[in-house]
Design goal:
single chain, 336 residues, alpha+beta, two-stranded antiparallel sheet, 9 helices, 10 strands, 39% helix, 15% strand, binds zinc ion, 10792_t:CDS:1
Length: 336
């Protein structure tokens, strides 16, 4: 798939997702059916793109169910435990990772312990953090400096974990991909602020929080002794606000740049605002075609929930947001 088609396919996915009426109560099965219907109906997508998006729907749903411990469980034929994920078994993945603890080391017990702790709590394949040997990073190129850190671009030869292979009972990698290396100043000193930030970064990944920049793990340059965070794509500079940008979007962007982190909107606030706006835009765009997931006629499954909207608790809505948080906007340079 070309970069442009990849972006197009993923934006189609995001469009379909915002059409889900998040104020209503839906089962995961309904959400998957709605997304699948929207993907299959889209005549602009090729069959390969549809296949990719249908797989992504299932992957996001698995991630949501595993993190929130909701949905229906199935018994794993290998370990006999009950798993929330369909494309993998979270217990088998955890066992695979813990069995591998003796096969790698960062050379530092404290760092090993943090990574091990992360791997015990985060078993969604694409979100697992790990110790990445420096030799696996190629074409390292200095980009910029800022925020007490130096930023490099690099190619990660093997790439992050991607899928669980049931037959071989092992995790498979996605293959070569571009990554960002963030080397915080004073990173050789484990008592420094650097170490605290690294811990926060790594532990953040194990929570359902919106993680704007994905963290794949840690590495260390053996020549200089500096540790580096291995991250997904990030923007170097704040984008310029274009002339015709809507007022609400401009103020949201500026809010996110506020020098004081306390004043910045939370991920839930951003999601709420953007999805509301997008939903109204797409509704107009689609006109009569618009259909919400609550349209019972379109749902043939028997699991339609009878809960009324008044049953909605704040706890429930935050779970739905976490599902959105799992959506993985792909960067064109992730090497697909
Ligand atoms: Zn299992």
């Amino acid at each position: 798939m070309s970069d442009i088609r990849y972006e197009f396919a993923n934006s189609t996915y995001s469009k379909a997702f915002v059409l889900i009426d998040l104020c209503a109560t839906h089962t995961m099965k309904e959400i998957i059916m709605f997304m699948s219907k929207k993907i299959n109906e889209n005549e602009e997508l090729t069959s390969a793109e549809k296949e990719y998006l249908l797989e992504r729907t299932q992957r996001d749903a698995d991630g949501y169910c595993v993190l929130s411990q909701t949905g229906s469980k199935r018994q794993c034929e290998y370990c006999i435990n009950w798993s929330y994920a369909i494309n993998y078994c979270e217990h088998c993945v955890r066992k695979y990772l813990t069995d591998n603890f003796s096969n790698w080391t960062s050379g530092n017990d404290e760092i090993n312990a943090i990574i091990q702790e992360c791997q015990e709590s985060m078993v969604i394949p694409s979100r697992i953090v790990e110790w990445i040997p420096f030799g696996n990073l190629k074409n390292i190129e200095y980009k910029t400096r800022g925020g007490y850190a130096s930023i490099f671009k690099a190619r990660w030869k093997d790439g992050r974990f991607d899928k669980w292979n049931y037959e071989k009972q092992k995790l498979e990698r996605r293959g070569s991909m571009d990554v960002i290396l963030k080397q915080l100043d004073n990173s050789r000193n484990l008592k420094s602020k650097w170490f605290q930030e690294t811990k926060t970064h790594l532990k953040c990944v194990t929570k359902a929080n919106l993680n704007v920049v994905k963290c794949y793990g840690l590495t260390r340059d053996p020549t200089t002794g500096d540790y580096m965070l291995v991250l997904g794509h990030m923007n170097w500079v704040r984008p310029k606000i274009k002339k015709k940008t809507p007022e609400w979007y401009t103020s949201l962007m500026k809010g996110c740049w506020d020098a004081n982190p306390e004043n910045r909107p939370t991920s839930e606030e951003i999601f709420r605002e953007v999805s509301e706006r997008l939903r109204s835009i797409y509704r107009n765009e689609l006109e009569v075609d618009f259909m919400t997931i609550s349209d019972k006629a379109s749902i043939s499954g028997s699991e339609y929930t009878n809960k009324s909207r008044t049953d909605l608790t704040s706890d429930h809505s935050s779970k739905l947001y976490s599902f959105q948080n799992l959506l993985e906007p792909k960067n064109v340079n992730e090497g697909n």
